[in-house]
Amino acid sequence: MRLETLPDWLLPLWQDLHKRGTRLPHALLLSGPEGSGKRLFAEHLARALLCQSPDDRGFSCGTCADCKWIESGNHPDMFTLIPAADEAAAEEEGDGGAESGKKEKAKSTQIVIDQVRSLQASLEVGAGGHAGGRRLVIVDPAEAMNMAAANALLKALEEPNGSTVYLMLSNAPRRLLPTIRSRCQVLDFPRPDTGQAVAWMRGEGIENEALLGFVSGLPLAARNYAKGVLFEARRKVASDLATLGVRDPLKLSADWESSLKAKGAQEGGFTMPILINWLQRWLSDGVRVAGGHPARFFADYTTDLTRQAKGRSEAWLNAYREIETHRRMASHPLNQRLFLEEMLLSVYRRIAIR
Length: 354
Fold this sequence. Notes:
Elements: H1 11-20, E1 27-31, H2 38-50, H3 65-72, E2 78-81, H4 84-94, H5 113-124, E3 135-139, H6 147-158, E4 164-170, H7 178-182, E5 185-188, H8 194-203, H9 210-214, H10 219-224, H11 228-241, H12 249-261, H13 272-290, H14 302-309, H15 313-327, H16 336-351
Parallel strand pairs: 1-4, 1-5, 2-3, 3-4
Helix pairs in contact: 5-6, 11-13, 12-16, 13-14, 13-15, 15-16
């Protein structure tokens, strides 16, 4: 699979690494929020380090044998550690979604110790790479490792073999073991300035610039919301929230439950934690608008927010705080419908227009 080019705002980071030549550390921690371009950067770096003839800017040539192997997904010196559930989904996609004929145990959303042990066994075979060069391991996201897996990988980081480079990607580096962080050199991923971000989005054909505020200034993340499941989900949820203060919260709860259970919703990234996050963002914008400030996350719904929240900042702030208690249970509600009903009723009582 060919990679898209790095966006302009990541090139200084790339150029800094390129200047180091062969003096790279054995472990890099790529730190930044989801959508900051960490995975794209790591893929480019892995390919460049395995390429036989990188260009003068340090990017892979795309034509040598190593590059061809990577594109086909079969390079013997490139390894990836991702949550077991994502790994299983990727395998099913590669198999055309064929069913095994028997019900299997649900895969973990963590990176588990068996995966690390399997990686270590693979690295021990033919140590030094197929041609005596580097071996690359991408761990994404690193904070998905459970304690056992993290401790197992820590041993490899403490005793590097000189030929293996670990690219650790993290949305939340503080959730990593301090001992793992201390053995990695951190690369902090920058946010582009507004001009760069807007120019990039226009080049991608994304006309709704309000999405940039919704994703905290990360245009790569904005692209995920410009079409598909998340685009439709955001549009529907925002339309529902525009009538939140006058709509029956019980009916809305049933509607949202159906949306969460719709085909492709979970796979497309529309989950209960995401829904609650969006509700909090809407309430946060309401507080801002009521105080005379511009909406940050739902700037494309400023008219609705102004109509709802004008002069009622305290009520909206209390509603926002109320949702915080629900957010903590969002990943594992005992009963999804009752959870939504309780949450929306609590918000409705505070912001309903009487």
